[in-house]
From TrEMBL:
rRNA-binding is among the record's keywords: no
SMART domains: PKS_KR
Domain Ketoreductase, residue spans: 7-203
UniProt family annotation: Belongs to the short-chain dehydrogenases/reductases (SDR) family.
GO MF term set: oxidoreductase activity
Protein name: NAD(P)-dependent dehydrogenase, short-chain alcohol dehydrogenase family
Top-level taxon in the UniProt lineage: Bacteria
Assigned keywords, A-Z: Oxidoreductase
Length: 290
């Protein structure tokens, strides 16, 4: 069994849904957990101490160790406070699961700047801030595990979610770069793109999906990715309903000429669009252009 004894985990947005499930699973397997949740509504408005405190109570009833944080992770002060809560209660941070999220859906033409900015602030800036606040501790320890929460809506696009899909694809870039920079200090970062039955999706998914898409089926992957035995870094996985799959950003073999003109591109469009053999890294992409 993969255990997390002596590991300290911060899980943002852990008062409900997926984060709550991640917190319960890691605590059940021995981790000391900071349960962070602002306790607001799905659109990010409001705040309450109830959700984070409720999950902490449940973990303690089950014999685990946890502390609550109601800090807003989209602000630098809030992100620092979450990390400080882990240090004060448990002395270190081994694991950060950036899970907090909000929705402000609107069709692209009607989306306000505020709706765009608020969604990026929680998902992207929040994940950057909490990871960065924990980073010096992880570097000093020569060990760290970060999981960011992307979405199929970001990887593939989704009607009415220009803000959310921008944020969720942004997290792929953040994950890959933390993975590259963290490698020399034993820090690994991966992203999940889940589907689960939570307050975020219960109005969208058919009722019979509730059990099949239980959040616990996503938490199993999170637990593996934040375990010390996991070698993967910079990867992205879709997960839900009991299925896990690697998602990769790949470049096709491309088509080249020494006289690239708009007309030449138009005339060789099928070769430009070809998918295989594909290229997986920025270095190989550059090499193919030489
Ligand atoms: P949820 O609404 O149950 O959980 C999100 C939690 O984040 C809430 O408890 C909320 O209070 C908290 N939160 C929001 N803003 C915060 C802030 N500034 N600081 C601290 N906490 C904050 O929704 P769910 O479904 O559990 O979502 C978890 C993550 O998974 C989100 O990032 C979401 O975008 C992502 N996701 C969920 C999918 C699903 O099918 N449920 C699909 C794809 C991605």
């Amino acid at each position: 069994m993969l255990r997390f004894d002596d590991r300290v985990a911060i899980i943002t947005g852990a008062g409900h849904g997926l984060g709550r499930s991640h917190a319960l699973l890691l605590a059940e397997r021995g981790a000391k957990v900071v349960v962070n949740d602002l306790g607001g509504a799905l659109d990010g408005t409001g705040a309450s101490e109830g959700p984070a405190a409720g999950v902490v109570d449940l973990i303690k009833q089950n014999g685990g160790q946890a502390v609550a944080s109601t800090d807003d992770i989209s602000t630098p002060e809030g992100a620092r406070a979450v990390v400080q809560a882990a240090v004060d209660a448990f002395g270190k941070v081994d694991i950060v699961v950036n899970n907090a999220g909000i929705l402000r859906d609107k069709s692209f033409g009607k989306m306000s700047v505020e709706e765009f900015d608020q969604v990026l602030a929680v998902h992207v800036r929040g994940s950057y801030l909490v990871s960065q606040a924990a980073y010096p501790l992880m570097k000093a320890a020569g060990y760290g595990r970060v999981v960011n929460t992307s979405s199929p809506a970001g990887l593939f696009g989704n009607f009415g979610q220009a803000n959310y899909s921008t944020a969720k694809m942004g997290l792929v870039g953040l994950t890959k770069t933390i993975g590259i920079e963290g490698a020399r200090n034993g820090i690994k970062a991966n992203a999940i793109a889940p589907i689960a039955w939570t307050r975020m999706t219960e109005a969208l998914l058919p009722a019979e999906f509730e059990a099949k898409f239980a959040p616990e089926r996503v938490s199993a992957l999170v637990a593996y990715l934040v375990h010390e035995s996991c070698e993967a870094s910079g990867e992205v996985f879709t997960v839900g309903g009991g299925r896990v799959a690697r998602v990769f950003v790949a470049e096709g073999p491309g088509w080249r000429t020494d006289d690239l003109t708009p007309e030449a591109i138009a005339g060789n469009w099928d070769a430009v669009m070809a998918e295989q053999p594909y290229v997986l890294t920025a270095a190989d992409s550059m090499k193919a252009m030489l």
